[in-house]
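Q: Got a minute? One more chain.
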Amino acid sequence: MQKNLLRPLVNAVLLLSTFGLNSSVWASETFEQCVVGLQDTARNQGISPQTVDQVLAKVNYLDKVIELDRRQPEFTTPFSEYLGLRVTEQKVKKGRELYHQYRDLLQRVTRETGVPGHYLVAFWGLETNFGTYFGKMSTLDSLATLACDPRRSEYFTQELMSALKIIDSGDIEPERMQGSWAGALGHVQFMPSVFLKYARDADKDGTRDLWGSVPDAMLSAGTFLKGIGWKPQLRWGREVLLPKDFNYRLAGLGQTKSLAEWKELGLTDAFGRSLANVNIQASLLVPAGHAGPAFLVYDNFEVIMRWNRSEYYALAVGHLADRIAGAGPLQNTPPADSPRLSRVIVLQLQEKLIAYGVDPGTPDGILGPATRKALREYQHQEGLVADGYPDATTFARLGVSFPAVEQ
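A: Always. Here it is, folded:
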């Protein structure tokens, strides 16, 4: 990438934002200069003159994209709400219908990639509600806007170059390349760089069409999961039951034990049956605290998180896949009265934990793994249930007001 051409421009944006100047002023005066630099970068990467001069030259700056990029979630959504919105009975029913409708295709993808079809349908459901909504923003406009913004300029410049290479390949016309505000594409919401590496032409029509071809989308998703480490012999994980005296400090993705070791600690499957006495490594997650469901997750859970770095997302994919394959609801449902935690409240929690002497990481208002680990340590030292979940008792002990539960 021609960093010497683009860096002064993105630095100019940073200075303007620092002094509070309107980004739209910058957009009208400087975006065109940035695009000239992007054109030089594209030429240096071997992108065709026609695409550089007729496609990249016509991109537009989108204020909405920067607004969405800057918009941080005000609240931390509790697991019960997150799962309830994504694994609905309607989505399970539709997923089962599509699983049977595309059975032959999905079996083919499984043979070629090792990824079972119910997982592919689950990703499809989570990403685009089974192809009913891809996003309506011009991918090229979105990526050019983000490439000319200082926050993640280098990353989005390369994604823009990948998008232009997709156009050069003939897989899609520029005007059809629409997706999310951040540039994700098609049925399974691939970023352009992922598309270039993993997209496949399953229906053999000469194009990798992740917008109009379900076969292409499913084979591409399977190829991607295989490429990032999917293990065909494993499932994602399972719901489990914990003994009453369980030590919750053993929970968290950073700690693993074999199923045999978890069995020795008194864990059973969700129906109270004995776990297998095998050496499969697993971590324990309690996303809603000790009053909610518990899960043992395997290596494929980590693979799902390479698709989306969210434990909640990976749990939703795994649970939806199980439901599509015929399983029932969770045996232990998450508490419905969990509050939504604002970033301000989480920041207060983090500051209180630091003052107490445990490390939640850099205070950022996000209830991530480091903060949960710190909460577990604090709860243990205070004689509370050390599940890393900020319940009313933990709030009170830390001296932070417990948020009201929305009805």
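A: Residues 23-44 form the longest helix (22 residues).
Q: Perfect, thanks.
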